[in-house]
Design brief:
Blueprint (H helix, E strand, L loop, with lengths): L13 E5 L8 H14 L4 E5 L5 H5 L11 H5 L5 H4 L1 E2 L5 E4 L8 H5 L8 H7 L12 E5 L6 H9 L2 E3 L1 E3 L11 E5 L4 H14 L7 E3 L2 H5 L7 H4 L4 H23 L1
Parallel strand pairs: 1-5, 1-6, 2-4, 2-5, 7-8, 8-9
Antiparallel strand pairs: 3-4
Helix pairs in contact: 1-11, 6-7
């Protein structure tokens, strides 16, 4: 007798892009530490470094000489995302690193009909790659510009997290994650209040404080949670990871 029970399709990981046209707002720091925090509570996470500067790769301790395959190769179609994926020092956290070659990728793919869907196609193929089995989250660290690279990230994503620095000029952007909050600064409190008033529950409850230990961690090639788990910044990112999972579960339940 033939068993006609349908074989369940592998589940596509939840894809979140961290994007903001303004630089220095905490995109890379949030990608690294949110990814680490998610991995620490049992998720299997891939960080895709789409910034040619490669700060997410450096911040996770991946030396430039060891980046044999990169997101440039993925967007050019030379390798799959699973082939570019590397282990990090954090169990359950993986990285698709960036190199300076990414600066030229727009010229390479500009004439292609699928130029805005290169990353989406690569992520869709992850479900068939055994190296990526059990992957639950993909976090995309975007460059500080609305380029074809960023468009690829947004096309591939289920949602976009927009880190917002708690300063006046940051109000020109939109936000879901408030960063660099300083309770001693009245302006930080005013920015936070204004953002919550206009965007409501789209803004995460968790606020990431200014923290010296979080700023120091990348120079040691470590996420803040490995560098100093007890610091206020690390604890805030653990809280953010819990809030991300809680919101994701609520979205799935409502679907």
């Amino acid at each position: 007798m033939t068993d006609l029970t349908p074989i369940p399709m592998p589940r596509r990981p939840r894809v979140l892009a961290l994007a903001n046209q303004k630089g220095g707002v905490g995109k890379t720091t949030t990608a690294i530490n949110l990814g680490t925090a998610l991995a620490a509570i049992g998720e299997k996470v891939l960080i895709v470094d789409l910034d040619p500067q490669g700060n997410a790769s450096t911040g996770l301790g991946v030396d430039r000489r060891s980046r044999k395959s990169s997101t440039y190769d993925v967007l050019c179609g030379d390798v799959g995302l699973g082939q570019a994926m590397q282990e990090t020092a954090v169990p359950g956290l993986f990285l698709a690193p960036s190199t300076l070659d990414l600066l030229g990728v727009e010229l390479e793919i500009a004439a292609s009909k699928d130029r805005a869907h290169r990353l989406k196609n690569a992520i869709d193929e992850l479900v068939y790659d055994q190296r990526c089995a059990g992957l639950t989250y993909v976090l995309i660290d975007c460059p500080p510009s609305l380029s074809l690279i960023t468009i690829n990230a947004m096309t591939a994503s289920d949602a976009v997290l927009v880190p917002l620095q708690c300063e006046f000029f940051a109000l020109e952007g939109l936000s879901q994650v408030l960063t660099m909050y300083d309770p001693r600064n009245n302006l930080s409190g005013q920015v936070m209040a204004d953002v919550r008033e206009f965007l409501g529950d789209k803004v995460y409850e968790t606020v990431i404080p200014r923290n010296v230990r979080v700023s120091e961690a990348p120079s040691y090639g470590k996420p803040a949670l490995l560098y100093d788990l007890r610091c206020s910044g690390s604890q805030a990112y653990l809280k953010l990871a819990s809030e991300v999972i809680r919101r994701e579960r609520a979205l799935r339940a409502a679907a």
